[in-house]
Write a structure and sequence with these properties.
The complex is a heterodimer of chains A (about 350) and B (about 230). Chain A is an alpha+beta fold and about 350 residues long. Chain A folds into 2 domains: about 220 residues, P-loop containing nucleotide triphosphate hydrolases (Rossmann fold, 3-Layer(aba) Sandwich); about 120 residues, Beta Barrel (OB fold (Dihydrolipoamide Acetyltransferase, E2P)), CATH 2.40.50. In chain A, about 20% of the residues lie in helices and about 35% in strands. In chain A, the strands form 4 sheets. In chain A, strands 6-7-8-3-9-10 form a 6-stranded mixed beta sheet, with helices on both faces. The longest helix of chain A has 17 residues. Chain A is globular, with a radius of gyration of 22 Å. Chain B has 11 helices and no strands. Chain B has one domain: MetI-like (MetI-like fold, Orthogonal Bundle), CATH 1.10.3720.10. In chain B, about 35% of the residues are buried. Classes of the chains: A alpha+beta (about 350), B mainly alpha (about 230).
């Protein structure tokens, strides 16, 4: 009922966007796709920063655009985080935050300014002008500024893309805290699969201005028919729970329907839900369970499909008690091992990353 | 040190330039905003018209303004119908002519300042609930401030420095239209070189100080925004 329905046909010379999607009103939905696939345009259409001649948009049963009406951006209860922060250079951080806050009626203030300042750790920056902030600080202020208007929908356009790796690592934990503490649905545009894996519950994959897939992040990550699987960062997402810790070797065990995995010691309580990511390139296959190997995560699996990924590589889909895992192997190995759907194998997992 | 006639010319010039600058900021700002944001095909022709006074000899502009505001011109007919008489050889006529003459010097810096802000920050303001007028006054205007300072200074200084248009449209009526540049011309015609020098040195000093302060301000503004 309370979801977001968007249908747009929008084009300019050399590009056409044609989408018709329904998105959940909870959690983080990633809009994923390569550069030029129309991700940002879709977000701008939803914000009303661009106007499709032919469009329908309803958010939580409120129509923002249809054939006869168009709610202008300033009247839509949304927050928008731009890739390039777009802080007002003539105002200090405090007044940047106040800008939106002052323009919403007190009755619709549901997010407390102090909470947002704490959440994003920008307390010490309040009296600085944007020109005196680092890239990561600027982006945190921009996120805070979008939150203090108590948006009913938060739109984020690649908020980390302009940052280097170190700054990304600085901002990412704040985005995760956002997800965990605020009950605001987020549309998160990204072309970075690792960000999506960490943050998103749901995803929409765009290519060439069209939606090529949508669904839960873990389902889509496990599919081999999408452009995602050819990527070096392709891999399965597995929802698991913490089973216990091995204090001697400083390992944490997690269990899921397909078995048990060990990863470096995590500060998580036993029983806690976690999300782990296993890259396809970190999984190799054997026909018999190996002994005398340094790899500690070896799980029995069944081959469900094999997809070519480039001239020499294949991506093998595996079923582990209902969970899908991907393995990237050479085409030569596929033939040498006689891999085919239905075959029982052992997956040797070289790396498991906790993403949430 | 200045005699009464010279002082009167200076006061008249300052009054003219002040009125003209104020009017130009009011008229020039919407024109500059439109030019900075429009995608209409009219943009280029309007820009060309605004810029005409830069390249035209002041006598050409003055001539057409004189004809237009004269008793048989369209503007003259209109002002007569309103019972205002005709504008040439009056202070009001001088103001109107100066507004045209100095228009590009006010519009162009403001237009450049608006264009430099770009749509990004205004979009950000829109996502923070600011309506169009609100965005203009709280984002565009403050950020374009260096452009407004440049525009006001150039508009003022350029009006002080005009001669040809004044002579064509205003003539040489003491206290009405006899501004400093015309007064200097009169002194030279009458071979009163000492008197001419007095005024000329004032104008020279004024122009230098004004431009010096303007460039110093712009340098500071550039460094602050960097």
């Amino acid at each position: 009922m309370n979801d977001l329905a968007a249908r747009f046909r929008h084009g300019y010379p050399g590009f056409a966007l044609e989408v018709d999607v329904r998105l959940p009103s909870r959690g983080v939905t990633a809009i994923f796709g390569p550069s030029g696939s129309g991700k940002t345009t879709l977000l701008r259409l939803i914000a009303g920063l661009e106007r499709a001649a032919d469009g329908y948009l309803a958010v939580a049963d409120e129509v923002w655009q249809d054939a006869n009406s168009f709610v202008p951006t300033h009247a839509r209860p949304l927050g928008y985080v731009f890739q390039d922060a777009r802080l007002f250079p003539h105002l200090d951080v405090r007044r940047n935050l106040d800008y939106g806050l002052r323009r919403i009626p007190p009755s619709s203030r549901r997010v407390a300014l102090d909470d947002v300042i704490d959440l994003l750790g920008i307390g010490p920056l309040m009296d600085r002008k944007p020109g005196r902030l680092s890239g990561g600080e600027r982006q945190r202020v921009a996120i805070a500024r979008a939150l203090v208007v108590s948006p009913r929908l938060l739109l984020m356009d690649e908020p980390l893309a302009a940052l280097d790796q170190a700054r990304k690592q600085e901002v990412l934990p704040y985005l995760e805290r956002l997800h965990d503490t605020l009950d605001i649905p987020v549309l998160y545009v990204s072309h970075a699969i690792d960000e999506v894996a960490r943050l998103a519950d749901h995803m929409v994959v765009l290519d060439g201005g069209r939606v090529v897939a949508q669904g839960s992040t873990s389902d889509l990550m496990a599919r081999t028919d999408l452009p995602l699987s050819g990527d070096d960062g392709a891999g399965a997402l597995i929802e698991a729970s913490v089973a216990g810790h091995d204090e001697t070797y400083q390992l944490t065990d997690v269990v899921f329907a397909g078995g048990r995995l060990s990863l470096p010691r995590q500060a998580r309580a036993v029983g806690q839900r976690v999300r782990v990511r296993i890259l396809a390139r970190d999984v190799s296959l054997t026909l018999a369970a190996q002994t005398g190997t340094s790899i500690i995560n070896i799980l029995p699996a069944r081959v469900t499909g094999i997809t070519a990924a480039g001239p020499s590589q294949s991506v093998v889909s595996l079923d582990l008690g209902g969970t899908t895992l991907l393995a990237r192997v050479t085409r030569k190995s596929v033939d040498a091992l006689g891999l085919k759907p239905g075959l029982a194998v052992h997956a040797q997992i070289k790396g498991v990353a906790l993403v949430k | 040190m200045l005699n009464a006639a010279n002082l009167a010319a200076i006061l008249l010039t300052v009054k003219l330039a002040s009125v003209v600058t104020l009017l130009l900021l009011l008229i020039g700002t919407p024109i500059a905003w439109w030019l900075a944001n429009t995608r209409s095909w009219l943009k280029a022709p309007v820009e060309a018209i605004v810029a005409l006074p830069i390249v035209l000899p002041p006598s050409v502009l003055g001539f057409y303004l004189l004809v237009a505001m004269g008793p048989h011109g369209p503007v003259g007919q209109f002002t007569q119908a309103l019972g205002l008489g005709t504008l040439p050889f009056t202070f009001t006529g001088l103001v109107v002519a100066s507004v045209f003459y100095s228009l590009p010097f006010v519009v162009q810096p403001i237009q450049n300042a608006f264009a430099a802000i770009g749509p990004g920050l205004l979009e950000a303001a829109a996502t923070l609930r600011a309506r169009p007028w609100d965005r203009f006054f709280t984002v565009a205007l403050p950020l374009a401030r260096p452009g407004f300072v440049t525009a006001a200074v150039l508009g003022f200084a350029h009006t002080v420095g005009e001669f040809g248009v004044v002579l064509m449209v205003g003539g040489n009526i003491p206290g009405q239209t006899r501004v400093v540049s015309v007064q200097i011309y009169d002194h030279v015609e009458a071979l009163e070189y000492g008197q001419a020098h007095e005024l000329a040195i004032v104008l020279m000093g004024f122009s230098f100080v004004t431009l010096f302060l303007l460039y110093a301000f712009n340098r500071r503004a550039t460094m602050l925004s960097a």
